[in-house]
Design a protein that fits this description.
heterodimer; A: about 200 residues; 8 strands; B: about 375 residues; Rossmann fold; Rna Polymerase Sigma Factor, Chain: A; eight-stranded mixed sheet; two-stranded antiparallel ribbon
């Protein structure tokens, strides 16, 4: 088994076998390949980078080049058992609308994102007065694709306001899973399994 | 790299008459085709490659008239993306064509050439004749059908009208319907042919005169649509031809081909008439104009693919304004709605619509990857 990124590994572990999955921002198809190989999942991907799409096709995966900000509208309602959005929410033009799209297309949605309220980020901003640059978020403010900085608490508030139910959530520090207590301080990133 | 060794063109008489979309029935149809590679014992390794408007069965073998390498020799051969050491590749001249398959130049039952008595054919009719060929070859299910431009239309039509006959469908620089702009360009070409006095209402066979001027203008107009503005600018700009007297870069203050781009287009037009029949051009462009896969299936493109069990891959090019990416996206949209497994990528290449025929390494990778799974 290949070494999947920890948030993808959690998703791969909790997808039910034999389901249909849309991986939004699928990159070169690491998650899709894993799901196909281990869970007989019918996986499809959407990816904005044509070279990554070409790589997916070359490994026998189905991926469509598209911009998730626009092209999710092309998918019918409830077309998938799961829609997956990993580490992409914070780059969306309108994360709230993208969340609505995910829950329209998929009966359930996995969403993972970096937690901008992690203590190291807070310390960075508080003590140095500069936008944090960390191992997980290594890009300076002026060239980062992360245009909507979100925290675990912010995300929970968004879900509550849209009547989205949390089925499960997982939190990570470094590459280790941690408990939910104090997650908004302690988690570097989070994975949520959501449904309407 | 080795080139593909083709079996020489075979002409096969179809067992059954061809019932056409027009309601007419074409009897005694011959299909001229070439094959490359070896058909596996289980007959499961066949790839059908339908050709584009002015293509023919000489997919990867030298053209008998021009002597040039086959139109997709880049793509088809041992170790190439469509690997003939692994796959049995079939390419057939379309019905209505002029390279051996039954077309307007063929003899009608009365012994005289059909000319304009040839029935108007459709893309689906072309596909019917190729499926009949597959039946004769004993190929129940293709590993893949792969086509660019009009070849892609045939690939989509095969998937929609003969579900189960292809496990993979790859359409490149293509569309599920001909746009108004595409029809308009074709009409210019047809009018150029029919305005040539040598056309003679299509009855020019045996008259000693052929509508080369008209066909040549049709080809020139069409050729512009296959290129991109940037490509033309790169290749020719406003550069002038050397004059016949040897002087360089002077305007003639007349209507000779002063600009290199004029000279290039004239050459493209004239050389085309050596290898193509003007009436075939009328019929094949008409077939493309009539193509609307959604219309055939109750107006909804997704319905066309409702019965398919194939995997699809759709490829467009960013400089192709004849079959732009939006056309590919509508195919992808329909396939998604039909829950068919589909991949789509828009590749960057400078050659306009012709990119599918030219050196685009990313295309090679995607084609090889899609067929190789």
């Amino acid at each position: 088994m290949s070494a999947l990124r920890p948030d993808l590994a959690v998703i791969a572990r909790h997808v039910e076998p034999g389901t249909r999955v849309l991986d939004v921002g699928c990159g070169e198809g690491e998650l899709m390949a894993e799901l196909q190989a281990t869970k007989q999942v019918d996986a499809r991907g959407m990816e904005i980078d044509p070279q990554a799409v070409a790589q997916c096709v070359a490994r026998g995966l189905s991926a469509v080049q598209g911009d998730a900000n626009r092209d999710l509208a092309d998918y019918p309602d409830n077309a998938f058992d799961y829609a997956v959005l990993s580490q992409t929410l914070q780059t969306a033009e309108r994360p709230d609308l993208m969340l609505e799209e995910l829950l329209r297309i998929g009966r359930r949605a996995f969403v993972s994102f970096p937690n901008f309220a992690h203590w190291r980020m807070r310390a960075h901003l508080l003590l140095r007065g500069r936008m944090p640059v960390t191992r997980h978020l290594p890009v300076s403010w002026y060239e980062t694709q992360n245009i909507h900085h979100v925290t675990v608490t912010d995300f929970r508030a968004l879900l509550a306001s849209r009547q989205v139910r949390i089925e499960r959530c997982w939190f990570f520090s470094g590459d280790r899973e941690i408990g939910p207590r104090g997650a908004n301080w302690r988690a570097e990133y989070a994975v949520f399994l959501l449904r309407r | 790299m080795a080139s593909a060794r083709a079996q020489p063109t075979t002409c096969m008489a179809l067992a059954e008459p061809l019932a056409l979309d027009s309601g007419q029935v074409l009897h005694g149809v011959t299909v001229a085709y070439e094959t490359y590679g070896t058909l596996a014992a289980d007959r499961g390794n066949a790839i059908l490659v339908p050709h584009a408007l002015t293509g023919d069965q000489h997919l990867a073998s030298p053209h008998p008239i021009t002597g040039k390498p086959g139109w997709w020799h880049r793509m088809v051969g041992p170790g190439k993306p469509i690997d003939t050491s692994r796959f049995f590749v079939i390419c057939a001249n379309v019905v209505g064509g002029c390279m051996g398959s039954t077309g307007p130049a063929s003899a009608a039952p009365d012994g005289a050439p059909f000319a304009m008595r040839f029935p108007v054919i459709t893309i689906r009719d072309m596909v019917r004749s190729q499926v009949a060929l597959l039946d004769r070859l004993g190929i129940a299910r293709l590993h893949a059908v792969v086509g660019g431009s009009m070849g892609g239309m045939q690939a989509l039509s095969l998937a929609a009208n003969f579900p189960g006959r292809a496990a993979r469908v790859l359409g490149i620089a293509t569309s599920a319907r001909h746009s108004a702009q595409n029809i308009a360009f074709h009409e210019v070409g047809r009018q150029a042919i029919m305005a040539d006095p040598a056309w003679q209402g299509g009855e020019y066979y045996g008259s000693g005169r052929t509508p080369d001027k008209g066909l040549s203008v049709a080809r020139m107009a069409a050729h512009i649509t296959y290129l991109s503005e940037a490509g033309l600018t790169d290749k020719f700009g406003r550069r002038l031809q050397d004059r016949p007297d040897g002087s360089k870069g002077a305007k003639s203050f007349g209507f000779d081909a002063d600009f290199q781009v004029e000279s290039y287009l004239r050459h493209q037009g004239i050389s085309f008439t050596d290898r193509f029949d003007a009436n075939s051009y009328l019929y094949i462009t008409r077939a493309m104009d009539y193509f609307d896969l959604a219309e055939e299936h109750g107006g909804r493109l997704a319905n066309a693919f409702a019965g398919t069990d194939a995997r699809f891959c759709v490829i467009s090019f960013d400089t192709d304004w004849l079959y732009p990416t939006s056309e590919s996206r509508s195919i992808v949209h329909a396939l998604n709605a039909a829950a068919a497994p589909v991949s789509f990528v828009e590749l960057s290449a400078p050659f306009g619509h012709d990119s599918f025929l030219l050196d685009v390494p990313a295309l090679d990778r995607v084609v090889a990857g899609f067929l190789g799974q």
